[in-house]
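Changelog-adjacent note: as of this version, every example in the card shows the full chain rather than a window. The one below runs 184 residues end to end.
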Amino acid sequence: MIADVLAETTSRMTRAVEAAKEDFATVRTGRANPQMFQKVMVDYYGSPTPLAQLASLANPEARSLIITPYDKSALKAIEQAIRDMPNLGANPTNDGNIVRVTMPELTQERRKEYVKLVKSKGEDAKVHVRGIRRKSKDELDALKSELGEDEIARGEKELDAITRQHVDLIDDALKRKEAELLEV
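Full-length structure tokens:
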């Protein structure tokens, strides 16, 4: 029973860490990266649609990205969605067939803003992991009547170790992203 709770907790925490890493990838560095455009929602015939479902993204150079829509009528909507995306600072151009996005050079001040944003996202991810821990601890406490207190205490120690491990993974990803952002 305790093993089931811990296995489920590990699985949920691993998914939380992966979600945090994906969230970090959406924050831009000095290079253009198709992952930065994952959260771009395009108003396509009245419904918000992820950009990846409407177009292919190619990265020909370090600071530029080419977006080729599957439906040419979506060009204007894609261009507008990219322009409206916060924290991107990209200026898309449309030549009738493709949308070309050139990422401007990051200033030191802007890099520091992005570091703050990433730290905030990292803290949110840690809070989520701790929330999973709290829920799992409640599940373990509910098993106290069926199992002994010693078994529950051992399970809680394992739970704390799992939580610490996943928080450390988030911290490592955060440090890598911070180094990548501050790299000139």
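Structural remarks: The two ends are 51 Å apart (CA to CA).
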